[in-house]
Amino acid sequence: MVVVCIVKNCRNAKKTTKEKNCNLFRVPKDLDRSKEWLINCGREELCSKSVETLYSNYRVCMNHFKENMFSNPEKTRLLISAVPNEFVMHTTITTTSISVDVSTMVDEQINLSSPSTCKFIYVFFFIH
Question: Where along the chain do its domains lie?
Answer without folding.
Answer: 1-93
